[in-house]
Amino acid sequence: MDKEIEKLKNQAIKIVNENADLKHKWTLMEPIKGLGIYTFASIVAETGGFVLFKSIKQLTCYSDYDVVENQSGTRIGKTRISKKGIAHIRRAMFLPAFDVVKFKEPAMKELYERVYEKTKIKMKGYVAVQRKLLCIMYTLWKTDQVYDPKKHCEHSREEEPGGPLSGKTSQIDNSKRKETTEKKSSPTVRRATRDGLSGKLSPVGPLSGITKILEKSYS
Q1: How many domains does the chain have?
Q2: How much is the pTM?
Q3: How far apart are CA 159 and CA 154, in angstroms?
């Protein structure tokens, strides 16, 4: 089984290296220390080359990195990721998050330390890094720009003190909180969101081969 998995990984990497478009996109992200070409291939396959996504918010919801507030009993006000989307992406980002922090990639290391300092929970810091790394990959893919460590050290809204990843919530009144919760829990809204991102890749094209390979490795 291990040999078969390794064989599939090598096939996925070969597809990236032999396809001009995929190879070009990989060169944009290759400077990120701790991000490997197989992780790149996995994310491209799982997202269809980000073709269905028009914003980072859509991507994070699809990938389970959207943050929700716990409304149960004494846990009101505490936040967590929803885990209602595609788990394969989170699995692909798990080890790279440790690596980019280990190799002290500026944007990731700073974020991890900031979240850990506020929450005292290491895994929350690594989840924040997973999310940021995925968002950076999306941004580089869409803008066709090479990774710049200094540029990506800038804080996003979710990473600022008091943001959802810090473990603290904004001071909003109960009526607004109730309205927000009802909207998030609406099955119609949730179903519409999922259906809007459930498109399938064309059976032809540079991404179809890598998608089939990754599907086999996940089965």
Answers
A1: 1
A2: 0.66
A3: 10
Instruction: Specify if 209 maps to a domain.
Output: no
Q: Are 53 and 47 in contact (CB under 8 A)?
A: yes
CB of 148 closer than 8 Å to CB of 191: no
Tell me the one-letter amino acid at 213: I
Task: Give the Cα-Cα-Cα angle 196, 132, 41 (nearest 5 degrees).
Answer: 65
Q: Indicate whether 132 belongs to any domain.
A: yes
Q: Is residue 219 part of a domain?
A: no
Q: What is the pLDDT of residues 26-45, one digit of tens each?
A: 999 999 999 999 999 999 99
Q: Residue 185: count other Cβ atoms within 10 Å of its Cβ.
A: 11
Q: What does the block give as tokens for 55?
A: 């914003």
- Please give the residue range of the domain that contains residue 106: 53-204
- Residue 43 falls inside a structural domain: no
**Above 50 in pLDDT, residue 175?**
no
Q: How many CA atoms lie within 13 A of 211 on its CB side?
A: 15
**CA distances, 118 to each of 8, 56, 111, 214 (Å):** 40, 24, 11, 37
Classified as helix, coil or strand, 60 is helix
- Rounded alpha-carbon distances, angstroms, from residue 66 to 34, 46, 62, 94, 212: 24, 17, 8, 16, 27
